[in-house]
Model the fold of this input.
Amino acid sequence: MTGSSTGANMILDEIEEEIAEYIGTRYAVVCSSARSSIRFSLLSLGIGHGDEVLVPDLVPEELPITVFCTGASPRFCDVDRRTCAMSFTRFQQSLRSNTKAVIFAQLYGLPADPSPIKEITEEREIALIEDASQALGASINGKKAGACGHVGILNFNKSLNVPLGAAVTTNDKELASRIKSNRAKYETKSLFASLCYHIMELSGLKAKEIIQVVFWGDKYLYKLMHETLAKKHFQEIEGWTKVNADALEMWGSNSLTATIINQLIAHCDGRYWHRRKLEKIEIMLLKKEFENLGNYLQDRRKSAKMYDEYLKQGGYEKILVPPNSISSYKKYPILFSEKTRLSKCIKELTRAGFIVDYRYKPLHMSPSFGVMNEDSNFKEAIYILEHLLPLPITLSMKPEKIEQAASIVNLNS
Done:
């Protein structure tokens, strides 16, 4: 082992200890992305073909694709409009004998209490994966988001000034060890990244600048991977990933091959996440940025208080933070009473230069995975799609921009 890799491992151990201490778990395993973290967790839990994983109907599409990559079936569950998290009632109705894991997502930084679901999953020996990708720093009844399930998932580029990096948190020593083994197996070293950082050391260029170059270079390389490996089976249709029927048929007949899985991952790598091993300089940046988390959370909560002040009730309602909980405010979500007013407001915000994102289409509408969920009711997810506006909160957002965004909402509500 070289001195460089030894140093990287030491820093990695340090940041993993810091993350675990902050979240309140015994272990943390840093990965390249949140979706890799979920995949490694599912694999380490022994989830595979014939198993079913319950997924909220209102989350990014890459989540059920990640489940699919293990050979398991993603089954969607309606959400609760008061929290945007999985509905407990629908969860109970969706359970089956082959349900082996539940992914409980905390959206927009909103803390939602998974303890009623956790009680049932523990009784039935079902793994509860708490996806706190958007909720780093939030807390529920005195527990940090990411510490409420059997496994917690964190995503650092959602909350820190880093282009990539995520972590799995758990109290299970053996599970943490298996996740590390899967990380070592599936995350490969990037020759492109290594070359760029070597040039940086020789030229004296700034680390942050080179990291951005590497990040965008990786995205281009993965796009090439998609063009050469994955396009045959996976295409973009109206914003959805369309899985070729032959691949789904192989999946259904227990013949999902490593080649098909790798092509699917290649497709998604071109759009969503990285599977390469983090370099030493990236781990160092992550460690430094993690120390700034408290300041970032303070800024986001100040922005939320300004929205509280400027937004006038009328034509919409705020999604309230539950008692004994603290939001990390990835976004400031509100629900319009009329969907036509929502559409008008989004147009006005976009015209004013605001980015309106993190609006998800219900997964049961997916052309690939919807057929697996035709017998369920998703009225709450549809309601949120038609009425929810996640107002922007960014690390660099100035007070006057928050006031402007709130004014546009008030004028269009």
User: Anything to note?
Assistant: Residues 207-230 form the longest helix (24 residues). The chain has 15 helices and 15 strands. The CA atoms of residues 111 and 404 lie 27 Å apart.
